[in-house]
Write a structure and sequence with these properties.
With about 350 residues, the chain is of the alpha/beta class. It contains 9 helices and 9 strands. The radius of gyration is 20 Å and the shape is globular. It has one domain (about 40-85, about 105-340): Rossmann fold (3-Layer(aba) Sandwich), CATH 3.40.50.150.
């Protein structure tokens, strides 16, 4: 299914130069060398990346790329088409980029870093929105498109929990979306984010979903949605990268040195049960996102960590999806949007750190 029309993503063939689901192309121009060094592998009928293959239990195939792009659409709808809330310096909106009447020289635009960029859709959208910005996305899997804006780069494979070497004190915005389930040590990650932001004006923005089901009415713990979440939560905790939303994030950001920390929460209905028009639209998209995630998120963690038979995984995912489809089940998840600023006097351009 080509979801590019409805999600706004680049057509999927743009992400692949070789046209094979076993060999997706690299957005970094590495070609086949990546797959010779880190061959992808099939597991339970899904394709997984080869770089540090035990670190990330989720696939990288066509289905997964579609799923990630659907979540990008969910966030866009839930946030009224806002790509970010954190302030950015010296931005030149796309509708002014071709204004030849402008007499003033353009200041160097912001430097934006996207951690765990996935298909690169957020990074590309930001590069198009701010044509004078430099946007860099990093990810474990090179599934990003080669046809991207000139002011957007990708580095993959790259593990954002390893040393960065990306220029400390040089980034205006560092963005992380859906990092839960991919991080072993949040304090270590936040320290690195803090070190690399520009003092005084650099912001970190994190967008996460708390997958614990919250019903408007009582939901028994033996209900499929509750069982699904509990199974996923337990398996990822054992695997060392919990997918549960960490409720100590604000404390950890303060400990890392951040100031001006804000936390917004948005409800994500599991189906279009709300009466409010906007919430109903969010529910439509989130129902699609959840239906694409119910089996995908369970498969790796439960089969690898718990050795759960595939038949049990299939049955649990099917039951959870069925309950999510039921409009009489008025349940929702929570979308968390967290921003934090690095304090300190704003320095001049760091020596040795080019704009791009």
């Amino acid at each position: 299914m080509d979801l590019s029309i409805v999600t706004g993503a680049a057509p999927r063939e743009a992400h692949r130069s070789n046209g094979s689901p076993e060999n997706p192309s690299s957005g970094t121009g590495r070609g086949n060398s990546y797959y010779e060094e880190y061959p992808s592998h099939q597991e339970n009928g899904r394709l997984y990346h080869g770089f540090r293959r035990t670190m990330y239990p989720y696939p990288c195939d066509e289905l997964e790329q579609n799923r990630l792009d659907i979540f990008h659409k969910v966030f866009s709808v839930a946030r009224f088409d806002r790509l970010h809330y954190a302030p950015l310096p010296n931005t030149l909106p796309s509708n002014q980029s071709n204004d030849s009447s402008a007499k003033q020289p353009i200041d160097p635009g912001p430097r934006i870093l996207d951690l765990g960029c996935g298909t690169g859709i957020w990074a590309i959208d930001m590069a198009r929105l701010y044509p004078n910005a430099y946007v860099l996305g990093i990810d474990l899997s090179p599934i990003q498109p080669q046809n991207r804006p000139d002011n957007c780069d990708f580095q993959a494979p790259r593990d954002f929990e390893s040393p960065w070497l990306l220029g400390e004190d040089s980034w205006d915005l560092i963005h992380l979306q859906m990092g839960c389930g991919s991080v072993a040590s949040w304090p270590n990650l936040y320290r690195k984010v803090f070190q690399h932001l520009r003092p005084g004006t650099g912001y970190f923005e994190q967008v996460e979903i708390d997958l614990e089901p919250r019903p408007d009415r009582y939901m028994a713990p033996d209900q499929p949605l509750s069982q699904w979440y509990r199974s996923l939560k337990d398996a990822t905790e054992i695997g060392g990268k919990p997918i549960a939303f960490n409720r100590n994030i604000l404390y950890m950001l303060r400990e890392a040195g951040f100031e001006d920390i804000t936390h917004q929460i948005v409800g994500l209905p599991l189906n279009p049960w709300p009466t409010d028009k906007h919430e109903k639209e969010v529910g439509k998209w989130y129902n699609l996102a959840y239906s694409e995630s119910a089996h995908t998120l369970l498969l790796g963690p439960l089969s690898r960590v718990n050795n759960t038979p595939l038949e049990e995984i299939d049955a649990l995912a099917k039951a959870a999806k069925s309950q999510a489809y039921n409009k009489h089940v008025e349940a929702y998840n929570l979308l968390h949007i967290i921003m934090a600023r690095k304090p300190g006097p704003a320095p001049s351009e760091p020596q040795g750190i080019p704009h791009r």
